[in-house]
Description:
single chain; mainly alpha
Amino acid sequence: MRNVEMGKALFWVGLVMVFLGAAAVIMPLASSLVLEVLIGWLLTMSGIVAVVGAMQFRGTGQFLWQLLVGLITLAVGLLMLLYPLQGLVALTVLVAAIFVLTGLAQASFSFWLRPAPGWGWGMTSALISLGLGVYIFAVLSEASTVVLGLLVGIDFLSTGLALVMISRSPFRM
């Protein structure tokens, strides 16, 4: 991909992330519940597919394992749909871990870009993602349903802004 095309792609991805982040910050409870319900549906559908797929393993040593994984995934998805507020606690732990991993990946990408102009924006975003992940783990017992949507919004905003700023920098790869 040429630099101009990459710059345009980074700009548009960043702009969409800024828009989504702003929406999540403005409506944190709604965004938290949307995330939880979406993941609940994804796990439910994935569990159903896994249970059906396990039938292909009947008569083998893998059948029980495949069926068990499918049933557990299905059960977790259904529990998240039936108990969305309690599901937010589990999801909060998952999001905290994702923020930490995202921050590490962004830091790696930023060091890879260095010394190109704009690499500092990526590092700033990495530090914000890491900070958010550590913060969520630190306040997990007090974390409300609003915190998840708000922090996801902040992370999307910082990542989106970083991508927009990097897209505007004259970098060469």
